[in-house]
Amino acid sequence: MKVKTILVSQPAPKAENSPYSDLIEKQKVKIDFRPFIHVEGVQAKEVRAQKIDLKNYTAIILTSRNAVDHFFRIAEEMRFVVPDSMKYFCESEAVAYYLQKYVVYRKRKIYVGEKTFVDLAKIIKKYKDEKFLLPSSDKLKDIVPEILNDLGVKWDRGIFYKTVTSDLSDLTDVFYDILVFFSPSGIDSLFKNFPEFQQNNTRIAAFGDSTIKAATDAGLKINIPAPTPETPSMTMALEKYITEVNKK
What are the phi and psi torsion angles at 53 (to 5°)? Predict the structure, then answer.
């Protein structure tokens, strides 16, 4: 069956010249964006209940922009003035760059991983005298605590925000040829919103091993897996699939 409509379970990209714009133009398809999940911050009293005292830490591990936002939000709510001596260990350049929203970049000690947490761990390993805080959501990849424990560093996890299912009730009678997912939480949201969901002719695109596993475990057939050596991005995987099915 030909593809005419796609729903991406993420916010619309802010950049006008995003790969999705190219896909729309080249393949003449309609793409809608709708977050299936969203983030809500926890209150400072909930962080205190986790026995997190910000003054006890000398370094912050930041794995996402959400972690950056909610660390500084909690610091403000707790009236904690983040010292200039605080060290920041960022999983990627994108996270480090976003940190400039809150600190003067050139005046802080900021360490940046290449892309993954494994890359960042190689840097963290060199600073075993620090006391690390990992601000995170209620959902954390198992590999993160495993790596930190293996490194033997002093660290605590603080749940500063939570991943929450978005209300998609307005989509009950709306159908798309392809649904695109990027996390297991997105799959959970689909079935929480639509417990009776039947895939039928809907194609499922899933990015990442954990997302693919969650979708498969939920009984879905993965039509468009990514990344692959041939299609390292989701837009590339979508374009390849659409090109093949729409030419028939």
Answer: -120, 110
User: Shortest CA distance to 95 belongs to which of 133, 67, 65, 60?
Assistant: 65
222 in Cβ contact with 216 (< 8 Å):
yes
Both structure tokens of 40: 């809500």
Output phi, psi for 193, to 5 deg: -80, -35
Give me the domains of the chain, ranges plus CATH numbers.
5-36+167-246 (3.40.50.10090), 40-163 (3.40.50.10090)
48-66 pLDDT, tens digit per residue, is: 999 999 999 999 999 999 9
**pLDDT score of 115:** 78
Distance of CA 91 to the CA centre of its chain: 12
**Two structure tokens written together for 146:** 């495993």
Strand ranges for 18-86 from DSSP E: 30-33, 37-41, 59-62
| The one-letter amino acid at 168 | L
Lowest mean per-residue pLDDT among 18-22, 77-81, 103-107, 168-172: 103-107
DSSP letter at 152?
T
Q: Please, which residues bridge with residue 108 across strands?
A: none
